[in-house]
């Protein structure tokens, strides 16, 4: 719903094409009930309610608000027709959220009133959702005291009921409440409490939002280390959520916080990562915003050529979409850049256009910045009269902003001591503004001296930037080379151990879902087969042929194998003639053709020397125990795989041919049997029939007792 809303809409639409289940007409008394077949063709009434609600949420996440409203209207109509109060309340709450997203406040209030009449007092979950939405609506209407009281009530109720989710949302909305009242410290405490309440719970969305707000507050307070910490946490949570637009926004925020902490090089890494995601989505507005941030970062580093390129791209994008506020920001950054390079004519054109746009928008902050830069420009170019004019305009807009802030403070903050402190600070800023023109005259001489040093500083910055980029590239290349076996060029054991735990965790989750939801419906068919290959000729190449010839053969073999393996499979070189071949079960109808292809692949390897073309193969599938996937970790699974290879080598010694052995756990609850030394347990399982053995030759020829690990010797006193 959050990571791929378009696909979610298609799935729910496809599901709603099923016929509605009517038990009386679906079956007769002489037919045996085939529940699985009927479940594939029909939908129940409860499933229908859920599908319409889910489709509406997915459409809303895909920015299809009108179609989302139509879908939720279907859910409301069905709930009313069948008098399903729970489904009706849930649908009304979703419709109220959609109305708030479209800023239809009155409609949202009407829907919440209707939901409140239909809700049962005993349904605490829906009651909590209703109260949170009601508090949000009160803040939309600027009824802050009522909103705070309701949120405090929800928070206390959730605390008493040990309802972490509602408690965290209440804390988060209280943080938003205090932010709107410009009380950052109180807002910060509630956002931190939100993160503390959720802890390690998989509530990625609210945790990411709370971390993002916390980072913004710490950045405003000048605590860059903490701001960077929480911005990183926000990005991590959004990445686990899987929603690309939210992840892009978080990377953008992380880049800004990192740049504010004087690390523009690292900020560029985050901005370019976000740009890669935006290019996949094709969002031109976000692409232009990222071009602006990248250009600003390059300008901060003194890389003016790159800054000019990206700022021009941003300006073109904002002009195309008529985004005047961002266009003004881009023009201001271009003006700063040209001013830093003493290109006064181009800088004047950019800043004058930015000033005109800011006047159209009546944006006081942008007007103050443009007049400040214009005053600096005319002062540096020697036109003191024009500089004085812009300095007076800056002072006038500053006084206007001061008055607006004072009025807002009086209407929102009732703490007299804090208000007096703000008045004193604003008065001090006013006096400093009056002295600004005199200070600039004194600083002009100093700026002239510093301008002589600027080429050296620019050279140092550019040299440091180039060196850091080169070191970063070398580090990336080194990390990649560590994952490749140098002789064959195949992924090595480091690459395998980097991927195997994640792959096992993903398969374990699928196995658990199969066991909990569809255990009786079908066998588990989502394994990954791991084949451990022993290639005898690889282990004796150096002794037989020497270093030069063996190295050349291994390089040829690596290139040959990469072109022959299945496109959905992976091959790892473990050295000493051992390889692991991994392939999903869904790509393999039967193992026999795969094994035949592997034997043929090594048999057909073109080589002028005579080689032992046999291969010995041990095979297992993961999850090894589908009903208890967590019973075996990667090391214990590797022990079973090597046990299967040992059995195959026994067969090969007897038959003098290629051999393979597959170990398969039978379909029963046997996790407890595998407690202890896994090789011993597996051999006992083979003897007792809990582990099935498939092999290329007669499996009775394998002496499993000979493969039993030796027990440590004991000494009696």
UniProtKB/TrEMBL annotation:
It holds the Pfam family TPR_12. It is found in: Cytoplasm. SUPFAM superfamilies: Nucleotide cyclase, TPR-like. Keywords: Cytoplasm, Repeat, TPR repeat. Its main location: cytoplasm. The keyword Ribosomal protein does not apply. InterPro entries: Bac_ResReg_Asp_Phosphatase, Nucleotide_cyclase, Rev_trsase/Diguanyl_cyclase, TPR-like_helical_dom_sf, TPR_rpt. Belongs to the Rap family. This is Tetratricopeptide repeat protein. It comes from Oceanimonas baumannii.
